[in-house]
Amino acid sequence: MIIILSPDATQKNKKSIMDRLTHMGYEINLSEGKERTIMGAIGSNVENKSEVMAQLMSLTYVENVVPILRPYKRVSRELKEKTEIKVANGVVIGGKNIVMMAGPCAVEGEDALLEVAHKLKAIGVKILRAGAYKPRTSPYSFQGFGEKGLKMLSRARAETGMAIITEVIEATDAKKVAAHADILQIGARNMQNFNLLKACGKIGKPVLLKRGLSATIEEWLLAAEYIAKEGNPRVMLCERGIRTFETYTRNTLDLNAVAAAKTLSHLPVIVDPSHGTGRWELVTPMARAGVAAGADGLLVEAHPRPEEAISDARQTLNLNHLKQLKKDVKAIAAAMGRGLI
Amino acid sequence: MIIILSPDATQKNKKSIMDRLTHMGYEINLSEGKERTIMGAIGSNVENKSEVMAQLMSLTYVENVVPILRPYKRVSRELKEKTEIKVANGVVIGGKNIVMMAGPCAVEGEDALLEVAHKLKAIGVKILRAGAYKPRTSPYSFQGFGEKGLKMLSRARAETGMAIITEVIEATDAKKVAAHADILQIGARNMQNFNLLKACGKIGKPVLLKRGLSATIEEWLLAAEYIAKEGNPRVMLCERGIRTFETYTRNTLDLNAVAAAKTLSHLPVIVDPSHGTGRWELVTPMARAGVAAGADGLLVEAHPRPEEAISDARQTLNLNHLKQLKKDVKAIAAAMGRGLI
Amino acid sequence: MIIILSPDATQKNKKSIMDRLTHMGYEINLSEGKERTIMGAIGSNVENKSEVMAQLMSLTYVENVVPILRPYKRVSRELKEKTEIKVANGVVIGGKNIVMMAGPCAVEGEDALLEVAHKLKAIGVKILRAGAYKPRTSPYSFQGFGEKGLKMLSRARAETGMAIITEVIEATDAKKVAAHADILQIGARNMQNFNLLKACGKIGKPVLLKRGLSATIEEWLLAAEYIAKEGNPRVMLCERGIRTFETYTRNTLDLNAVAAAKTLSHLPVIVDPSHGTGRWELVTPMARAGVAAGADGLLVEAHPRPEEAISDARQTLNLNHLKQLKKDVKAIAAAMGRGLI
Amino acid sequence: MIIILSPDATQKNKKSIMDRLTHMGYEINLSEGKERTIMGAIGSNVENKSEVMAQLMSLTYVENVVPILRPYKRVSRELKEKTEIKVANGVVIGGKNIVMMAGPCAVEGEDALLEVAHKLKAIGVKILRAGAYKPRTSPYSFQGFGEKGLKMLSRARAETGMAIITEVIEATDAKKVAAHADILQIGARNMQNFNLLKACGKIGKPVLLKRGLSATIEEWLLAAEYIAKEGNPRVMLCERGIRTFETYTRNTLDLNAVAAAKTLSHLPVIVDPSHGTGRWELVTPMARAGVAAGADGLLVEAHPRPEEAISDARQTLNLNHLKQLKKDVKAIAAAMGRGLI
Predict the structure, then answer these.
(1) Fewest C-beta in 10 Å: which of B299, C109, C264, D251?
(2) What is the mean pLDDT of each run of 10 residues along chain A (341 residues)?
(3) Neighbors of chain C with 3 or more C-beta pairs under 8 Å
(4) What are the domain boundaries of chain C?
(5) Do D192 and C195 make contact, defined as CB atoms within 8 angstroms?
(6) How is domain D85-340 classified at the CATH fold level?
(7) Contact A59 B193 (CB under 8 A)
(8) pTM above the 0.90 mark?
């Protein structure tokens, strides 16, 4: 780290910091200028660096403390170039080809789920999304079928051979959800539910980690690091829109984060243009743009009759729109030298 | 709700919506203008209004749908004017007097905790804050003493008679934490951890609900509604800063939300100027401002030696600063016709 | 507009509003429900609607007022489907093919400008960008060559046949800049400099209007409406990144706004991935994504030696990178059924 | 500045940077660690530091560049502790006592202006605010009386002895406005209209500089530096709300910036709770909070009949509310050891 001292820092102050850091194992290098003194402190094996930084910044004679290294390791692109994740039904995510996961926001009952699963399969979708547990802003909204919904998802898999991605919202439910799902989805609101991250890390099945509404790219990668640290490197990052001042779109899908994540991390990156825009008419253009920015896959809300969908109707594609999206994305993928699974 | 139709909506489209809403129990009122048709749909007993709104908005011939009523009820100021919450040691929150809760960010060991507890008690603090469970951005940071920390808090209470506020981060831990705490704190990252909200609602002890980093005021009140709906109306709202583009402060303490919450809800409102600013030198001015905006209390990080604090050192007051804060806040409270507990 | 009255509005209050609006030429339609009364007020010829709305909202017995129509007209897609803008050297913007404008941030002297112009021409760039007037955050930064810079741009045009786009920062300078430029650029900081908008509208040359750092899509379109209202419909909208909490990128390039503007307006939309990201390594992926989202062109900072650029060096492509960008964008354009000019 | 090199920077790369910086007059200090090399470059007399930083960051072998000194000088609190500004009618801003400026958003005609001026004078207001030039989001809204409005303001001053604050929106108008105004107001949209800043700096009359909707505190101070650099140190900083995701309030009044500006700068700080909240019912609590945070004055919209105000009606106080605000603020000021002018 680099420590910038206040103009009024005394020699005693300087010595006190140097002693403290040397004692912790840091190697110190001092630059004394006319107006400010700067210390470089290098100590690659020191733990709790961010705490030490905050402590130094609490001193009145310290003006600023700047980190040198990025705080994540296992998910960093310095470690390796790329991770490919093979899902139960053989689909590979993060490889040459783009993957499309689609389905309704929520499991809406067994018949409805089987109907949508068969129809999506006919369109060529290999991974089915639908939530059994639904985190909802209002306590008066439908909260999902829970465990019964998980069983419906298992049946949809058995009947269609599609892989299942579904959300887990509670650390203690992780095993139960994993018994029915091929990919565990961690929602935006839970991106920093650290117990949940650890629980999903321990299970070892692929995890799709949505970026929080107001999470920086660094915080997102640190959340992925929580999962990887438990021994599970099979993590996908999912950009689904951040919260900004703009109200025309539900969220602001941040494709800069997609392009950035591909340079910072070896993990596959998925784009969710449905939550990212909140408007079905913007889903296809932003799906195209996501793939052009470098995404490895898409997570899209689709329903045979969006106007009857239990939730997220405004951002849900009907099946004709989904076919058009598929066609458009295939062309963009080809322009990127990639295929569409 | 109000439905604004597109210019190209046909008579058949209009009839289809009217039939659907009438069937659900809505009473419809139609205004046909030259450029647009507007429908007013009134149905005070209809459930799942937000779903119905989203479904209508998914129709191509609907331009916009606008709600009429606010979506929260139990925490609304239309219900009652004010809630006073009596804590175990007799302190009343939300009454005439301002309450000050203070302590270190984390429980740092038994001796350290007892030292700070006794020192804060001597300054006149009646409610001690300290975290046993610490949600941390990096998996490599100190994560708290957990259950051992809870026991240390119990001992601090037994020795000093202070009430204890501490964070619960997992629904399944709520009972365990409640066995040691007088006020359950729900952190900003967990404001929409709905299982946790429900679990805290069921226990019935006072709950302090921090506003999420990117939560709107309405979402904050809906989160409080989750707790109240379980039968626990003893909820305090805590403003702790929102995430904006400004980087000089760690967060942007939003006192507008404090003034607004006092007009929208009957719940007491607490201000946390430590997380709200992230800089100890701004804590006292913003504590004064919070009380002037109408807050009922303060939650402040204080430590005998901030430069040794395990976390949040940059925003932690030392004890002399805390005494000054107390004096300043007392004067502002008096100007508001209130006292300081 | 729709007016939602408070529960405590009296009959006298209602009559007072109805009289007022009727007097202004509105036609009123009343829906009286159990909990709220709603009024629909339709008056397509009434001026100053937003003022009337604000006045009504200042009444204690009015809870909310909601507009019905979008506030812009001339730039709206309800008027026409698409505008094509022909620039002096024959290039058409907003037509079938994608246009690429490139150049250094600032005019850096005559020799330097001619060097970059010839080199960009060789790569196939038809429109040269470079600023003679540079709005700079710090008064101690280089502020541009001003009028001398304009003359250098004219010479670059004469020598290469490229069209020139350059920024105008002051209404009183608009004519002078227009004498040397083929496209007038209005910068993000000036998006709501209404005198400047009007002055550029009066000149009649094509205008590129950058979106403000914190401007909503609606405000952006209203700024374009200012130009169109002066009789100049030859406006391009340019998305260049909004300000959000994310600090990894300089701004957050908002491609949702590109897709949305194409559905709301008939104007061509240009993407500036250089300012939008602030990092040269993200410029090419975001240029590709911009075209895939539906943009009609790109505005890119390029320099033979970015590390010597007077400003914006961090986000400037070198010429090899620009060639790669061109190749990539051409492939994406083809996938969209479009060419690259 | 501090330069952090990439792990793959070669000895040749290091030498190249060191030569370049040494040549510019920097003194270099090198720290070579196992994983990264850090350079401290100190050069207090070097101009265009931010350009040099950006150039270095464009090099692939540079990972980050961090500034050491704050980029503003004349407005910095390192220069002096406090600036008091004496206005024409003898009122001192930035001294012991709090100043209250009030009036309608816009000049609405001579009779209306004189009415409000006399009524505000009777309440004790010493500085009258009202806009002759009105920047408006929509081209279809009232744009102000312009020069005729300025003359009405002069008449209001002559009749009441109040000082006048009014907005200037164009550099070329600055002299004309200054002939009628005692304080020149620079609006939020114009905070980075650098020609306007310079023009107001040259005139020498007191300037009130509103913070831009998405301006950081540093950018705000740099804008003030533009004015000071022209030889005019009589600048007041005015916080009027920033743009965030919250929509309940029109803007988010950022009192953290008030407290911070008082520690970073010697300039007086004014709070505008009217634009800051957009809701008249929140104006008084936020005015109190602003003074408690350390503000030196208030800028408030007030009107005898807000429901007839030409603009900003929703956030305008009526005269009874203004009297209550005055009483409340006086009590808070007293608690701060200050009076109310």
Answers:
(1) C109
(2) 87 90 85 80 73 86 85 91 94 98 96 97 98 91 93 98 97 97 97 97 97 97 96 97 97 98 98 97 98 98 91 92 98 98 93
(3) A, B, D
(4) 2-66, 85-340
(5) no
(6) TIM Barrel (3.20.20)
(7) no
(8) yes
